[in-house]
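lol forgot to send this yesterday, sorry. struct tokens for the thing we talked abt
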């Protein structure tokens, strides 16, 4: 049996979402701070959920491990992202393992309930990563920053957002396996018909007026009239 298209879509989107979310979680560029007063104009500060970095655009000299002087890491959106993003990654790995066991491409028949349960797990993992990403984006301009500087969205935040959306779409595609499972259960099961022993063909008539008097008694009788005559 061929693997259903919904399962294939789920198995393609979810690993891609996992990769994007992993890169977005680990890289320190959720927010970019540029044009900081009393700093070189080509100096850009990149803020993630784990560390702070600075980079000179002219020389591409990058320095990470900057001190958090403004209390950036103490903000609630950053703390929530630190907790939910790794949880989402672990849950996505678990969902992919369960999905692999449910789809079972090497077997003839996939296990639809298992694949549907994996879809629910992957859907939850996508929501877990989408919540901190959306919250951080909403509070992007409210987080501590040097007065007069320019704030912008970093590439890590964009990758995390895309990865969350792919995980949600892949999870929804796998949850469609529940529909296939319920469809099989609702299908009526007809019992096998009774077996008939071979014998002479029975003479049954749907209209009793088409049967002659002698034919009703079961006695052989030869008529001189045509079979389809109405006389």
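and heres what i got for the seq, position by position
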């Amino acid at each position: 049996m061929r693997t259903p298209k919904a399962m294939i879509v789920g198995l393609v989107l979810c690993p891609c979402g996992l990769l994007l979310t992993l890169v977005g979680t680990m890289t320190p560029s959720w927010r970019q701070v540029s044009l900081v007063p009393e700093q070189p104009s080509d100096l850009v500060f990149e803020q993630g959920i784990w560390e702070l970095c600075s980079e000179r655009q002219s020389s591409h000299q990058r320095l990470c491990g900057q001190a958090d002087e403004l209390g950036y890491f103490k903000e609630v959106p950053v703390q929530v992202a630190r907790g939910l993003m790794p949880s989402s990654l672990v849950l996505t790995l678990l969902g992919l393992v369960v999905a692999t066991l449910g789809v079972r491409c090497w077997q003839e028949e996939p296990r639809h309930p298992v694949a549907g349960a994996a879809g629910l797990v992957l859907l939850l993992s996508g929501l877990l990563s989408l919540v901190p990403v959306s919250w951080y984006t909403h509070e992007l301009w409210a987080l501590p920053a040097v007065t007069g500087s320019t704030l912008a969205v970093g590439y890590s935040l964009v990758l995390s957002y895309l990865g969350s959306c792919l995980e949600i779409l892949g999870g929804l595609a796998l949850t469609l396996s529940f529909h296939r499972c319920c469809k099989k259960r609702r299908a009526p099961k007809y019992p096998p018909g009774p077996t008939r022993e071979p014998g002479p063909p029975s003479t049954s008539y749907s209209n009793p007026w088409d049967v002659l008097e002698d034919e009703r008694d079961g006695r052989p009788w030869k008529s001189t009239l045509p079979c389809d005559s109405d006389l």
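Residues 227-231 have pLDDT under 50 and may be disordered. anyway ping me if u want another try
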